[in-house]
Amino acid sequence: RCMSALHAALSSKLTRLELIFDDLGSDLSFILHCRYNIIKVHSCFYIDCEKLQARFDKLSYKNCVSVMSKTLQELTAHFPPKWDEITICVTKDQFIIKKCDEIVRDDDSVAVGMNFQVVCEPREFLSYDIQYQSDITFCLREFKFLLGLADLLNLPMTMYFDSRGRPIVFYFDAEELHFDGTFVFATIANREGETDPSISMTQSNLK
Q1: Separation CA 102–CA 171 (nearest Å)
Q2: Which tens digit of pLDDT belongs to each residue from 138-164?
């Protein structure tokens, strides 16, 4: 809700933004100063929880791609918000964002599978280093939120990933603003009866 308010304020000439933390009241306030001395205040309640630290090493990942966040945002705009997950499939020649096995029922209540995907070429990326084929699934909602944040700052985003079950790491750096961001998302491990395509490809290369 606060992000939506911020986007709306940007279109009405936001001049200053204040963030105020109230530790005693567990309250975070967004104070938006707009033109014509208009001030808008949005507050949200938060709950303190145990701090968790993700363990990862970006250099240990086999695949790394970098792209402007706006490009990814335009691609994921085709995916309805009701979908919980998306899958990224990569090869040396293609980068595919897809949603599979969506159940659609026709008039006779017959369930059919619906596949939806967007295909990109390596030339659409700032850098594209794919060591072997990978197929990973993670949460769409959090991904869209992250893209919105990076696009607001007009920053490129770098993704580190490889096999299913390992986290995917999103990284952006804003040197002129003196900060960087690292976000770690969990990915779905192999479902029953499935095999990781990256492992299959590695085994075929050894034959």
Answers
A1: 30
A2: 998 888 888 888 877 778 899 999 999
SS3 32: strand
Q: For 1-62, where are the E strands, in sequence order? A: 14-22, 27-34, 38-45
Amino acid residing at 109: S
CB 25 within 8 A of CB 48: no
Which pLDDT score, from 0 to 100, does residue 206 have? 36
- pTM exceeds 0.85 for this model: no
* Of the candidates 28, 69, 98, the residue with the CA atom closest to the CA atom of residue 157: 69
| Domains of the chain in sequence order | 2-45 (no CATH), 58-86+122-206 (3.70.10.10)
- Collapsing DSSP to helix, strand or coil, 104 comes out as strand
Residue with tokens 């304020």: 9
The pLDDT tens digits for 192-201 are 555 555 544 4
